[in-house]
Amino acid sequence: MSPVIVKTIQLFLSLSILIVLHELGHFIPAKLFKTRVEKFFLFFDVKYAIFKKKIGETVYGIGWLPLGGYVKISGMIDESMDKEQMAQPAQPWEFRSKPAWQRLIIMIGGVTVNLLLGFLIYIMIIFNWGKQEILPEALPDGFAVAEELKPYGFQDGDMILKMDGKTPDNVMNLNRMFVIRGIEEVEVKHKDGTTEVLALPDSLGTYLYKSGATNPLTPLTPSVIEEVEEGLPAYEAGIRAGDKIVSINGNNTSLWHDFSREVRTNEGPMELVYERNGITDTVQVNATEDKVIGVAVANNYNTDFMQQRKFSMGEAIPAGIDYGYWTLHDYVASLKFLFTKKGATEIGGFGTIAQLFPDTWDWLGFWNSTALISIILAFMNILPIPALDGGHVMFLLYEMISGRKPSDKFMEYAQMVGFFLLIGLLLYANGNDIYRAIFE
């Protein structure tokens, strides 16, 4: 099955789960407070519904427009803009008749469910699949360091020992910590065996992002070929899996970092020396226009310092909560990049979200992506923007503090402004996806 189809199915299933549970977060407290819920829909039913059935006072259904879902609560100014209902005297079962604290609980219910669901999924992932830990010693050759880090004392071949006094439990997460988490000091072990504590400025993360160095550390591994793609230059030249690349045009490329740099910067034919079964040979290779020759390198991790750690349920709960907390923290912290020129062009829509899922069906990948999206939805929905849950919460808090309820007319206008803002953002984000698909 095509990777695009697999990703689309996973996205559709994930969003369906998250939307239904989000709306249940509104539906259940509404029912508990004896508030009438007229509709409960997965996807929007503009002019048409794929399926609908009335049970009691609520119509349950599936719409045709997969941009979300909704519950229509009687007496509430929402995206339905039911002005006729709002013109009638308030009824006891309506949202507007309920005390402000009850309305607040109804409105935060969806966000609460999404947040708790994200944490719960992470707990279950860690309980069922465990957690891979890769200690610094697993990379015997250390890291290749981006030029942007070298002014602060980093050197190629450095091994990262501690970050802000803590030993990283997975060195493959170090780049995210550099760019997003505002690390203040790093203890490194240089190639010559000396150790040093390096101080970093608060602005380093933004500097790395703007410079495009979002992966400032690259594991140094030998240039031992793991895979060669048929039909591409390396295969046609006779390179095969297991070969070790010794040099390109006389420049040492025994490490993958050096090899990839030579391929990327070389113009014209390359004289490539490789070793196979202790015997060296030389071939001519011409990279494609995209600077690709069609090889992948094998990881050279010291497996003595790698483990797939298993967790009991008692251990998985705090570990999952910690993972969920840092997921939320990193997402919120990364939003500062949206206000840069580069960040604005990287905003994405459904296409970008679909890329979170694996190319082949994999339950671990599926649930990891679903948990991430759930936490993102929780945060985005609580933003104080009219038409989002956070907009309703903002006006309810104003009412509870001031003792004055915003007028229905004001709420209608605010809802319309928020709705058009969201539509504009939706069009912009998905427009970016389309542009990247066509021109990049």
UniProtKB/TrEMBL annotation:
Q: Look up the record and name the cofactor or cofactors this protein needs.
A: Zn(2+)
Annotated EC:
3.4.24.-
One of this protein's Pfam families, by short name?
A: PDZ_6
Residues forming the PDZ domain are 185-278
Give the matching PROSITE patterns. PDZ, PUA
Per UniProt, subcellular location reads as: Membrane
Entry keyword set: Hydrolase, Membrane, Metal-binding, Metalloprotease, Protease, Transmembrane, Transmembrane helix, Zinc
Q: Record's superkingdom? A: Bacteria
Q: Which SUPFAM superfamilies match?
A: PDZ domain-like (SSF50156)
Does Transmembrane helix appear among the keywords? Answer: yes
The membrane topology term of the UniProt record is: Multi-pass membrane protein
Asked whether the UniProt record includes Transmembrane helix among its keywords, one would answer yes
Q: Where are the transmembrane segments?
A: 104-127, 371-398, 410-429
Q: Which GO terms describe its cellular component?
A: membrane
Q: Which GO terms describe its biological process?
A: proteolysis
| MF terms (GO), sorted A to Z | metal ion binding; metalloendopeptidase activity
- Give the record's family classification: Belongs to the peptidase M50B family.
**Protein name per its UniProtKB record:** Zinc metalloprotease
What organism is listed for this UniProt entry? Answer: Robertkochia marina
